[in-house]
């Protein structure tokens, strides 16, 4: 394992993008996205389309969720691994997480909400849906840029339609010692694209291709965008799917929220033939 470095992740500004792909600003940002994803598989996105009140409200909703009794949280069950409640693992005792499938679809979120709050909690489901809808716009912009930059426009609709949005919410307790403790073990994400948003307690670390670890310090205005293994496979290795982990220090709890675009059940990821050549033989 490499050492810590002061390397910084690219910061890409999505705030001034016009509506239409093809505008000069769109192409500039697209180039930055491609470069960052080739090199790091990750970047920090400034995306001011998400109103401050939703960005604030989401952590209120997440805290309310984690404050439920353990038995209630465990009702957040799923057949799919890492889609439901995860926690109480001796190897990562600080970590707990829950998942909301189809988080952009109000009826789906409302039915999960009724399982956790049989008396209802409209505020909670409204916050989850608006946050997820707005972040999914960033997911769509980034994926459209990726598709264009790979020259795969003819697959754009198929690519956009092959995923659902899972919202996962994470809580990491502060270790309350002077030592740094593992919050979440090093892994790559299995989905297409992950967009993370955190409260102001840092801890996420990203491994570079040469093995060093970068500490991510996103601001309240920025989102961490990361590629998962599904997109790595679809692009036949042209984009990097980075290892990352969470390391916790201090007393404060870290809350993070991730919007994961996940291939629909049964959808088989296959690199388009355009991605395969002598330099890039088929990986999977
Ligand atoms: O909490 C974070 O910022 C990262 C979470 C993560 O990597 C994951 O859920 O896959
Ligand atoms: Fe992850």
UniProtKB/TrEMBL annotation:
Alphabetized GO MF terms: dioxygenase activity; metal ion binding
Keyword Disulfide bond: no
Record-linked Pfam families: 2OG-FeII_Oxy (PF03171), DIOX_N (PF14226)
Top-rank taxon: Eukaryota
Fe2OG dioxygenase domain mapped to chain residues: 162-263
Keyword Oxidoreductase: yes
Matching InterPro entries: DIOX_N (IPR026992), IPNS-like_FE2OG_OXY (IPR044861), IPNS-like_sf (IPR027443), Iron_ascorbate_oxido_reductase (IPR050231), Oxoglu/Fe-dep_dioxygenase_dom (IPR005123)
Annotated family: Belongs to the iron/ascorbate-dependent oxidoreductase family.
Biological role stated in the UniProt entry: Probable 2-oxoglutarate-dependent dioxygenase that may be involved in glucosinolates biosynthesis. May play a role in the production of aliphatic glucosinolates.
Keyword vocabulary terms for this entry: Dioxygenase, Iron, Metal-binding, Oxidoreductase
UniProt name for this protein: 2-OXOGLUTARATE (2OG) AND FE(II)-DEPENDENT OXYGENASE SUPERFAMILY PROTEIN-RELATED
Signal peptide stretch: none
């Amino acid at each position: 394992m490499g050492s810590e470095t002061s390397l910084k992740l690219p910061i890409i500004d999505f705030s001034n993008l016009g509506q239409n792909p093809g505008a000069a600003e769109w192409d500039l940002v697209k180039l930055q996205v491609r470069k960052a994803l080739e090199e790091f598989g990750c970047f920090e996105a400034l995306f001011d389309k998400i109103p401050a009140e939703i960005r604030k409200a989401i952590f209120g909703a997440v805290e309310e969720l984690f404050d439920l009794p353990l038995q209630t949280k465990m009702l957040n069950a799923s057949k799919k691994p890492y889609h439901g409640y995860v926690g109480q693992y001796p190897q990562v005792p600080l970590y707990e997480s829950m998942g909301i499938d189809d988080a952009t679809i109000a009826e789906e979120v409302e039915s999960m909400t009724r399982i956790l709050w049989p008396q209802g909690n409209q505020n909670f489901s409204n916050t989850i849906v608006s946050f997820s809808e707005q972040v999914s716009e960033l997911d769509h912009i980034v994926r459209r840029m990726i598709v264009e930059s790979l020259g795969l426009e003819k697959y754009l609709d198929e690519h956009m339609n092959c995923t659902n949005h899972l919202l996962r919410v994470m809580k990491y307790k502060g270790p309350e010692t002077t030592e740094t403790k593992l919050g979440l073990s090093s892994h790559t994400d299995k989905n297409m694209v992950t967009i993370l948003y955190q409260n102001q307690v840092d801890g996420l670390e990203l491994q570079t291709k040469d093995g060093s670890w970068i500490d991510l310090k996103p601001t309240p205005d920025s989102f961490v965008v990361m590629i998962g293994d599904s997109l790595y496979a679809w692009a036949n290795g042209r984009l990097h799917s980075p290892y990352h982990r969470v390391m916790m220090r201090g007393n404060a709890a870290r809350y993070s929220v991730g919007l994961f675009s996940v291939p629909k059940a049964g959808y088989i990821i296959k690199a388009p033939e355009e991605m395969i050549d002598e330099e890039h033989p088929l990986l999977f």
